[in-house]
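Q: I'm writing up a methods section and want to include an example of the input and output format. Could you take the sequence below and give the corresponding predicted structure tokens, formatted cleanly so I can copy it straight into the document?
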Amino acid sequence: NLERNESLVRILQYPAASIQELIDYALQESINLTDSQIGYIYFYDEKKKQFTLNTWSKEVMPQCTIQDKQTVYQLDKTGIWGEAVRQRKPLIVNDFNKEHPLKKGYPEGHVPLQKYMTVPIFDGEEIVAVIGLANKKEDYDEMDIWQITLLMNSVWSMVERQRSKIALRDEKERLSATLLSVGDAVIATDKLGRVEIMNEVAEKLTEWDREDAVGQPFSKVFKIVNEQTGLKCPDPVEIVLASGKTVGLANHTVLLGRRGGKRHIADAATPIRDAKGEISGVVLVFRDVSQERKRLEEIRYLSNRDHLTGLYNRRYFEQKLAELDTAESLPISIIMADLDGLKIANDTFGHSLGDQILRRAAEIMKRNCRSGDIVARWGGDEFVLLLPHTNIKEAEALGLRVEGAFKNERVESVPLSISLGWAVKTDVNQEMGEIFKKAEDHMFRAKLLQSPGIRSDVIQALMTALYEKDPREEQHCQRVSKYSQLLGRTMGLNERKVRELGVTGLFHDIGKVSIPEQILNKPGRLTEEEWKEIRRHPEVGYRVLSNVKDMAEIADYVLAHHERWDGQGYPRGLLPAEVFP
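A: Here is the clean output for your methods example:
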């Protein structure tokens, strides 16, 4: 027993570099322990019923002169040495030269055997190997069997542990190689939650160097908080180790980098299980979704916004109105707004200036509204304001403030003005459609009252802008007005017509306000393209004056003021009969 224990201690302390070296050493110790001269160890596969030579003792090879040494045997082809497997118990033959019914002989050149012992090595109920020892000077006995059985069972446990370590090491190496090559960030931990593997992407996102991170608690390297509350999020590795289940991060999770960086991330943490199904660690795969979040926010913003003004669009407004149309939001006010003179600006200068006017109007309204107010573009030149918890007096005060903010505002030469109307819902049973109608009616009444003056102001502003562009134009218009009246009187027209001719003379070139100043004041000859631009001004003037009630009658005169008797005028090339039917 002492010798066996000493052998076992030596085996346990032997610094074997591999399983093969350990088995070779164990065989040699078994030979020494039993005073044998030679020995072997075969691995056995019960499913295949097949022996595979693992090792022969070093003394055998010089004595063995077999030419073609066989290393693999099927159980049914073996002789007496296979009985340890067939009978599933040790076997001793102390007189090997004696005839034995199970002996099949051995090939020429085989090492002579006098005494022989073979012992099966079990792993549970399964035979995994056999050891054979031979040529002891004394007879083999039960003590030899007992000692070798105990010794080799201990050795096999060591072999299995070594195999498990190697398998785990290989698996970790494969896992590491796989994880390090993944495009997402990857961190793998051991079963205690300490970092074992970290790829380059994870280094970048956590702002930790791999050398510093390995061995650290995962929660120290991977710090996450809720974007909205700023509170620390649960550790996904702790959750996986406790539950054994795959988990993902909640929305709005932000990773705090070691050097202060912040990134929105999405991830999944999954348990790593060994061959026995036990959790040996956790692998966390995560990625930076900051850009995705940004794009989603942009898409969400654009889907809710008017692309021109940046205000909320009609769809979003209607959605918020449905949400806020509750008793808790009462009183809730609506302000309808209509931008005055936008059509004149579009007709005169084109939609580019009209867009500028709309953007400026949106800025003015946002600047004068409260933080909780919802300002939306309703469509065209109309806007709408939704004011929860706002009574009629507060709505009126806000409306007047917005209206006043438009005074003295101009975009280029066009004065800005807006007409507003408001109404309030005070009872949950009131229909919001009725409130809209009241606000809209109020707005239209305001527009009717101030539109003539506003349009007159716009016309006067346009004429002033024209005179600033071309100082000669003012004197020219006055002369045309004077001569037109003289001609009218000479022709015997009544005084009302003479006055119309005088007004037409003053405003006949109003369309030139849309022509670039460098063309109007060009000292040399105009190009064909420049002439085309010049010839547009009668039509522009016509569109502008058609929008002003008191000017509508002279709009036709302005349109025709460059027509000629020979039909070569512009823009329509009219003949006398078409002018004077």
